[in-house]
């Protein structure tokens, strides 16, 4: 037979002809008070409605109430605070309180029951349920009052005893359910909650209880059994070896789970020999439309509650357990999702780190052969006759080597910005100098394509605060793209103006334009428009990404506009306007190159081509040169040759360049030597490590031959040339050069 639903309560008949009792309704919303009055008018009792906890306390001082309906969420004094004050009055210390709330959880439930609440009703209320529950306490109050009035008769005594038993049973019922709620709500582990529920029911309800949960989404499929043994209660689970439920019990559980309805079986009366228990019941665990499992109990009448009460309470316990299991299920899913996201995040971070490591290593490996090529080109330029075709070939090779250097540096700059390794060298300078340097970088490309470049800068001085080399890199990149993606003979415009507290630089071209589908992601890494098989424009798709990130680092922004294919494009760069105070012109006053002095130079590099190229370049400049191919040879040559200058590679076999530099500096003859690091590693920590090891200058391959030779010429006895990094980007070149002062 089906069990009573969890919401069912005990309904006592209202006594006819009895004097109406007082019912207190406390809610701050007039419309809800009207609803409660309408629902409870059928009970024929005195309804006292107030709109605050303070008013409720005043009414309690005036009269005694049979039951109090108390809203939880009220301004000033909320329901819980009001209940606590009500309990402090002797007259209302044991008055039944039913909390009305639109939100219920285990925390609120535990707090309410600790204040002596007899029940919670979820808003919006079901009229029949509200009338039934209030009617119970009205009846109890009437019975209590009748007993007091008829205390001199035997019938009154019997009625009082009956009312007492009902009240005690209600109190025990409420206390048990409150305890069950606290216990089930105290854990978010499904296995622990299953065991706690089974232990709660044995031996209070019967000799055996089984909690069965099935949920494919959370990957839960198991059971927990509690049964009486000689010395107490034993817990078993499906995880134990050879553990299994009786077929009849398993079938009963599955039937309840599939149907969603509770069932009760009187085995003796129905002749169920497959069930060795006299009376069994099973109820489902339901959360919304989801069936989570079922509860099976072998009941024993007379243990804690009579059969009707026990059957009804199983439904109440199952409802509370359903909430606990649903919370634990959701918590488990959340934890699993968190773990999965953390794993994905770790994989993404690992992939990003591998990408950065690959870019750094690729840069180093490409720079070594590129350094040899650049040096060889410079040697050929210095010794070759001034013959037309040979000069053309040298210029082509030099130009393409610079292009390769620019592509490598763009890739590395994007990676450095992503890792926060870009360090900006701030200074204040006039906008016209930034524009002049940017234009100078693309002058050759514009002339090669027979294009015209018009530039407009306001007459008023506009000041910018930032890294002039990096901002030159941004503007020159936009101008370079404008020239690259525009046909020969077309016009390009660079306009600068002031808008409020911002400087706006606009690059406008008449080139191939930007497709509408590409425009929203034009600044994404590696984003490029459609290319022909000839890839005439070249590029890696990182220049605009780098330009935007550098602009953001300066507190500005960059936007792109285009009406479509072959309609040209417009790029706008916005930068904060700086004050003139503390401004300084970028760069220094040019000085004539000092007279060359013959120096003894030791070159240590394991790349024979690179070492030979530098040797040839230095000999052309009249220096005496010796070459060593590893660290140990370099130390031996240093002691024997006693050079004025050491050009030392970092990535040497046997002994690395840092250790070689430290050992050389430790020797007496090493104190006044100009020591230059020439390496493929060019990040900030690499430069700092070189300075810490005793190097005076740090050059990143491929080094500019003119600056390398100039550094040697500037060196005087005692090392008067300024020591430090020689790998800052050069504003005059328009690309992130690897050499400079």
Residue ranges: pLDDT <50 for 5 or more in a row? 1-11, 531-539, 582-594, 717-723, 727-741
pLDDT averaged over residues: 80
Rg calc: 44 Å
Beta-strand segment tally: 24
The first-to-last residue Cα distance is: 94 Å
Largest sheet: 6 strands, antiparallel
Q: Approximately how much beta-strand content do the residues carry?
A: 15-25%
Principal-axis shape: elongated
| Helix content bin | 40-55%
- Return the structural class: alpha/beta
Task: Enumerate how many helices there are, as a single number.
Answer: 19
Strand order of the largest sheet: 8-7-6-11-10-9
Task: Note the main attributes of this structure.
alpha/beta, about 750 residues, disordered N terminus, 24 strands, elongated, six-stranded parallel beta sheet, HisK_dim/P_sf, disordered C terminus, six-stranded antiparallel beta sheet
Task: Give an overview of the whole structure.
This is histidine kinase. Residues 721-734 have a biased composition (Low complexity). Its EC number is 2.7.13.3. It catalyses: ATP + protein L-histidine = ADP + protein N-phospho-L-histidine. The protein is an alpha/beta fold. The protein contains 19 helices and 24 strands. The strands form five sheets. A six-stranded antiparallel beta sheet has the order 8-7-6-11-10-9, sandwiched between helices. A six-stranded parallel beta sheet has the order 20-19-21-22-23-24, sandwiched between helices. It has a five-stranded parallel beta sheet with strand order 2-1-3-4-5, with helices on both faces. α10 (307-383) packs antiparallel against α11 (388-418) and α16 packs parallel to α17. It is elongated. The protein starts with 21 loop residues before the first strand and ends in a 16-residue tail after the last strand.
């Amino acid at each position: 037979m089906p069990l009573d639903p969890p919401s069912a309560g005990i309904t006592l008949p209202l006594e006819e002809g009895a004097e109406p009792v007082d019912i207190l309704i406390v809610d701050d919303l007039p419309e809800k008070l009207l609803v409660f009055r309408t629902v409870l008018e059928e009970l024929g009792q005195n309804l006292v409605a107030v709109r605050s906890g303070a008013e409720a306390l005043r009414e309690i001082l005036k009269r005694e109430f049979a039951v109090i309906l108390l809203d939880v969420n009220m301004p000033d004094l909320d329901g819980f605070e009001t209940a606590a004050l009500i309990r402090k009055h002797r007259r209302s210390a044991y008055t039944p309180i039913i909390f009305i709330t639109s939100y219920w959880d285990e925390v609120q439930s535990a707090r309410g029951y600790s204040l002596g609440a007899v029940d919670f009703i979820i808003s919006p209320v079901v009229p029949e349920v509200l009338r039934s529950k209030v009617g119970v306490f009205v009846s109890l109050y009437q019975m209590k009052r009748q007993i007091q009035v008829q205390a001199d008769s035997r019938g009154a005594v019997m009625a009082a005893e009956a009312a007492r038993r009902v009240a005690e049973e209600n109190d025990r019922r409420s206390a048990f359910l409150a305890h069950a709620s606290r216990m089930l709500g105290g854990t978010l582990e499904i296995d622990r909650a299953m065991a706690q529920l089974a232990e709660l029911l044995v031996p209070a309800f019967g000799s055996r209880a089984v909690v069965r949960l099935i949920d494919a989404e959370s990957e839960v499929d198991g059971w927990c059994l509690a049964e009486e043994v000689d010395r107490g209660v034993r817990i078993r689970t499906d995880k134990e070896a050879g553990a299994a439920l009786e077929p009849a019990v398993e079938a009963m559980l599955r039937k309840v789970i599939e149907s969603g309805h509770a069932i009760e079986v009187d085995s003796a009366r129905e002749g169920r020999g497959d069930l060795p228990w006299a009376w069994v019941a099973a109820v489902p665990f339901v959360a919304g439309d989801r069936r989570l499992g079922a509860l099976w109990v072998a009941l024993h009448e007379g243990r804690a509650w009579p059969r009707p009460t026990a059957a009804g309470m199983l439904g109440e316990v199952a409802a509370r357990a359903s909430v606990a299991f649903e919370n634990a299920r959701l918590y488990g899913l959340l934890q699993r999702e968190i773990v999965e996201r953390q794993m994905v995040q770790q994989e993404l971070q690992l992939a990003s780190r591998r990408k950065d490591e690959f870019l750094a290593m690729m840069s180093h490996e490409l720079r070594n052969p590129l350094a040899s090529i650049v040096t060889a080109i410079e040697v050929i330029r210095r010794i070759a006759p001034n013959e037309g075709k040979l000069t053309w070939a040298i210029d082509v090779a030099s130009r393409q080597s610079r292009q390769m250097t620019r592509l490598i540096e763009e890739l590395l700059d994007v990676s450095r910005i992503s890792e926060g390794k870009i360090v900006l060298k701030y200074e204040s300078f006039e906008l016209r100098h930034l524009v002049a340097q940017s234009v100078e970088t693309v002058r050759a490309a514009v002339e090669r394509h027979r294009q015209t470049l018009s530039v407009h800068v306001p007459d008023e001085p506009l000041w910018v605060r930032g890294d002039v080399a990096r901002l030159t890199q941004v503007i020159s990149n936009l101008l370079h793209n404008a020239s690259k993606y525009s046909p020969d003979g077309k016009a390009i415009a660079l306009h600068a103006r002031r808008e409020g507290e911002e400087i706006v630089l606009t690059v406008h071209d008449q080139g191939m334009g930007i497709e509408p589908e590409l425009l929203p992601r034009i600044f994404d890494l590696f984003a490029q428009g459609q290319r022909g098989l000839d890839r005439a424009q070249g590029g890696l798709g990182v220049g605009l990404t780098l330009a935007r990130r550098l602009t953001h680092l300066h507190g500005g922004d960059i936007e792109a506009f285009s009406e479509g294919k072959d309609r040209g494009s417009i790029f706008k760069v916005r930068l904060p306007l700086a004050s003139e105070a503390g401004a300084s012109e970028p760069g220094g006053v040019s000085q004539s190159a000092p007279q060359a002095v013959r120096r003894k130079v030791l070159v240590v590099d394991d790349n024979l081509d690179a070492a030979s190229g530098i040797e040839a370049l230095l000999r052309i400049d009249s220096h005496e040169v010796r070459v060593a191919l590893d660290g140990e040879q370099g130390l031996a040559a240093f002691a024997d040759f006693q050079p004025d200058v050491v050009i030392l590679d970092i990535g040497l076999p046997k002994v690395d360049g840092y250790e070689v530099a430290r050992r050389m500096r430790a020797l007496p003859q090493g104190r006044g030597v100009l020591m230059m690091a020439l390496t493929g590693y060019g990040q900030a920590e690499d430069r700092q490590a070189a300075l810490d090891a005793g190097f005076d200058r740090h050059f990143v391959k491929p080094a500019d031959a003119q600056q390398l030779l100039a550094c040697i010429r500037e060196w005087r006895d005692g090392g008067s040339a300024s020591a430090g990094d020689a790998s800052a980007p050069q504003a005059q070149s328009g690309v992130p050069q690897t050499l400079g002062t």
